Amino acid sequence: MASEKNKILVVEDDDDMRNILVDRLKTLARYEILQAADGQQAVDIAIEQKPNLILLDLLLPKMDGFGVLEKVRHSTDADVAQAKVIVLSNLWSNKDILRAQDLKIEEYYVKANTNLEDVLTKVSQIMAGNN
Amino acid sequence: MPEIKTPASGPGAYKIRIKFFPQLWLALLNFANHFLAFFNLKTTEQFWGIVYDSASKQPLDPVIVNLVYADGREVGSCVTDLGGRYGFLAHRGKFKILARKTNYIFPSEYVPGNRDGIYENLYHGEFFVLNKDDEVVAPNIPMDPKDADWNQKAKLRIAATYPYWKLLFRRLFSVLFWFGFIFTILLLWRAYPKFNWQLYAVLGFYFLVLFCAALLPEPRLWGKVRVKTHLENFDGLFLELHSSQFPGISFGKAKINQNGKFLLRANKGRYSLSVSLLDAQNKENLLGSAPVRIGSNGVLNASVVVKA
User: Fold this and answer.
1) What ipTM describes this predicted complex?
2) Domain B49-159 in CATH: superfamily?
3) ∠ at Cα B265 (B262, B271), nearest 5°?
4) What angle do CA A111, B265, B244 make, to 5 degrees?
5) Closest to A112 (Cβ–Cβ): which among B81, B151, B245?
6) A15, A59, A118 member nearest B102 (Cβ)
7) Which of A8, A96, B24, B83 to pair with B205, CA 20 to 30 A apart?
8) pTM of the full predicted structure?
9) What's the pLDDT tens digit per position in A71-96?
């Protein structure tokens, strides 16, 4: 059961960006890292694998990040609906940030302005239940 | 690490101030640069280096850009924003830039030279040498599309730029500028020996614009921090931008180098600029903050004073 509690889903359509995120998250060593390259795949994996934390891009093929967030939050499975979500996107307008915050995210990072170490620290805090 | 005598004193302990006259000069320089670029009298109006699609000329994001020494050691790394913008502040040495994005190839073969009609100062993966400290490294980087990129197509709907239209307008206004100049001289010649002060005023304005185009420096990309406190150096100091609506979100972050200089990229808007210090435990101590405004160039190049 313990391993099921320690999953992080990385949703990013750019392979290079996703690989960097996954490689860095793997250095934390305590978590199983799942990956999705589009919104639909992200929803499928979230429902099937029930990750504790989703690191979510917003501009995604097939279904955008807002769609993923809505599907996750409206899931009938409480484990899925209560997953923690960190948004990591280059969208920075007030409208996008407000829309994401309305869907109960833990943190919003503007990709170009964010040090990866800050994201890893936040991930560790959330996974440790300190947030 | 610098000594902090009052680490728990909080934001009120330090005053953060943007120096007025340097800021005014930079704003005037910025305005003049835009004006001159409008008439094609200055070649560039962009501050940051742009990573762009060599075929469509649209900016690319997210591109992972690395500045590395000749021996492969990494100096800095950043991710381009929606405008494809990036930049580094580097010390002297021999360097190379690497750029990575899915479905794109670097270096570009499609655009081989130093200019492509839209962008200038193009970079193709060659080594380069900096002979001075604190030099800005921000050449424009074309990347060739390898496969259709969904992300770029989606972004055309939200952040498309129109480089060809921009070039067309610049050339058109350039023709109008020079036509007006020659026409004014012809009118003066025709009016001679009668003195027409209006025509001399117009000609004077033309000469002033050409004088500015020849002599005004390019606006700088970097800003500078001046510390008037007991802090011994700039180690651990960094700047961050927050908006009043989303105080928890960073809209721009920059480390201050050993000479007090920084590169801070952000989108247009009004922000609160905070100056913080990382202590030995990697804990952030806020020293103070001040309101700032970022223009369309997306750069904070102000002189910032930190005073106890």
Assistant:
1) 0.88
2) Immunoglobulins (2.60.40.10)
3) 100
4) 80
5) B81
6) A15
7) B24
8) 0.87
9) 999 999 999 999 999 999 999 888 99
**Residues whose CB falls within 8 Å of the CB of residue A89, separated by 6 or more in sequence, listed in order:** A56, A57, A58, A59, A65, A96, A108, A109, A110, A111
For A116, nearest residue in chain B (alpha carbons):
B78
* Strand, coil or helix: A14: coil
Domains, chain A, in order of start with CATH, read: 3-120 (3.40.50.2300)
Instruction: Select from 3.10.450, 3.40.50, 2.60.40, 1.10.3210 the CATH code of B11-30+219-307.
Output: 2.60.40
β-pairing, A84-89 vs A107-110, is parallel
Contact: A14, B80; criterion CB under 8 Å: no
**Mean pLDDT score of chain B:** 88
Nearest-Cα distance to chain B for A64, in Å, is 10
| Whether residue B5 has pLDDT greater than 50 | no
For residue range B193-211, what is the model confidence (pLDDT) as tens digits? 888 899 999 999 999 999 9
Chain B: residue whose CA lies nearest to A109: B249
CB contact, 8 Å: B147 with chain A?
A: no
* Stretch among A39-53, A114-128, B2-16 having the lowest mean pLDDT: B2-16
**Residues of chain A in Cβ contact (below 8 Å) with chain B:** 13-17, 20, 59, 61, 90-92, 94, 97, 107-115, 118
Residue B304: its H or E element: strand B303-307
Q: Do residue B151 and residue A92 have CB atoms under 8 angstroms apart?
A: no
